[in-house]
Specification:
Strand content: under 5%
Largest sheet: none
Shape: rod-shaped
Structural class: mainly alpha
Order of helices and strands: H
Number of strands: 0
Helix content: over 70%
Number of helices: 1
Oligomer: single chain
Length: 108
């Protein structure tokens, strides 16, 4: 009976040792997978930060270009308004001259 108990004890010890080895292997695999996942996450974060920096630069460039274009549009609007006013003044003077000429012609 002692012998049987001894074999059972040895068998249980072997079982437990095998289970320990399995668990240690499983832990090692999980560590490797976690390390890979962390490296991939870090790489993605780095890539997203780079894209964000590029988008930020593009945005600031667009804002600057927009401000320059708005300024240029404003200058052209003023020039057009000045030309319209000058044209209206010329037309007014021309109209007055025509009216005076017409009146003079009909007096004779």
């Amino acid at each position: 009976m002692k012998r049987k108990t001894k074999w059972i004890s040895i068998f249980k010890n072997e079982e437990l040792e095998n289970r320990i080895i399995e668990l240690e292997n499983s832990i090692q695999i999980q560590r490797i997978n976690n390390r890979r996942a962390n490296e991939e996450r870090d790489w993605k974060i780095k890539e997203l930060r780079s894209r964000l920096d590029n988008l930020g630069r593009d945005y600031h460039e667009l804002v600057s270009t927009k401000a320059s274009l708005n300024s240029e549009i404003s200058i052209y609007r003023r020039l057009i308004e000045q030309e319209e006013n000058r044209f209206l003044l010329i037309n007014d003077d021309f109209s007055i001259d025509l009216i005076l000429l017409f009146l003079e012609m009909h007096r004779l």
